[in-house]
Design goal:
There is one protein chain. This protein has 274 residues and is of the alpha/beta class. The protein has a single domain, classed as Rossmann fold (3-Layer(aba) Sandwich), CATH 3.40.50. Helices cover 45% and strands 14% of the residues. The protein has eleven helices and seven strands. The radius of gyration is 19 Å and the shape is globular.
């Protein structure tokens, strides 16, 4: 068992929503071990698509649970924060990872940050990375980015797809993904909001990057100590994004440029047809 001091804080988001920026903020906090996408990341293609057996999926979750608990045991810090977006977004509620952690800790707080961004903007960002474009390997269709995300027809999806994956355009595939994460976030909040050992805080990317008082409120919510000037300095320098150059290259490689307005239109269409 893990002692009851401190907290364990994870993130639920569709990705491309400021998880690395959140990591930068959390890295300044005293008494905190902050990580961004440490191994194992739960970004396996077959796991995301629900193509593994229940036993295989459970083993992957179990390995991640053990790694988190090992990191907590070996750390001198009282709080563990991981900002990977893949931990909670493609498992149905109740979350196997959260349930496993709750069984392994002794009244330690589990915090979850619901990190939100305008869904059309998430689609736009992922489209520019080439996510959900198809390729063929050994006669089978695959989709770029899957593992970090999943298709609307994944067995892990919480919403009924409007068509088979092969009949969906790139933007429709992305719309199905972000709407599934939105739905799982709602189900997660409804299921865990009254749990005595789970504390959930919702924050938008714009507030994370620009609203210092909102960020300080999040830190206070989880009883985290902070240096206000350090947090303010990070916000002043703007959102960090290690993949900016990759995005530019992906857009040039694919030769397809979608507008944000097109993403909004497809998102509205998909939402109406669920």
């Amino acid at each position: 068992m893990i002692p009851s001091k401190g907290a364990l804080i994870l993130v639920l988001s569709p990705g491309r929503s400021g998880t690395h920026f959140l990591f930068s903020l959390c890295s300044t906090l005293p008494g905190v071990s902050a990580y961004h996408e440490p191994q194992p990341t739960l970004s396996c293609y077959e796991f995301a698509q629900g193509e593994l057996s229940m036993k295989e999926s459970a083993e992957i979750i179990n390995q991640k649970t053990k790694k988190i608990l090992e990191s907590i045991r070996n750390s001198r810090c009282s709080t563990y924060i991981e900002t990977s977006h893949t931990l909670l977004h493609h498992t149905l509620v109740p979350s196997p990872l959260i349930e496993g952690l709750l069984r392994s800790i002794d009244n330690r707080l589990i915090g979850v940050i619901l990190l939100k961004r305008n869904l059309a903007e998430v689609m736009f960002s992922r489209a520019r990375l080439g996510h959900m474009t198809r390729y063929v390997n050994a006669g089978k269709y695959y989709y770029r980015g899957v593992g970090w995300i999943y298709t609307p027809n994944s067995k892990n999806a919480s919403l009924c797809p409007i068509k088979p994956d092969k009949q969906l355009t790139q933007l429709e595939l992305l719309a199905g993904y972000v709407l599934n994460v939105e739905n799982i976030s709602k189900e997660f909040l409804a299921h865990y909001k009254e749990h005595p050992n789970v504390r959930i805080f919702e924050i938008k990317l714009d507030d994370l990057a620009n609203n210092l008082e909102k960020v300080l409120g999040m830190m206070d919510f989880f009883d985290l100590e902070y240096d206000k000037k350090k947090l303010e300095r990070i916000q002043h320098h703007g959102r960090t994004n290690q993949r900016a150059e990759n995005k530019r290259l992906a857009q040039a490689r694919d030769g397809v440029e979608y507008t944000l307005e097109e993403c909004r239109e497809v998102l509205d269409f998909y939402r109406r047809n669920i």
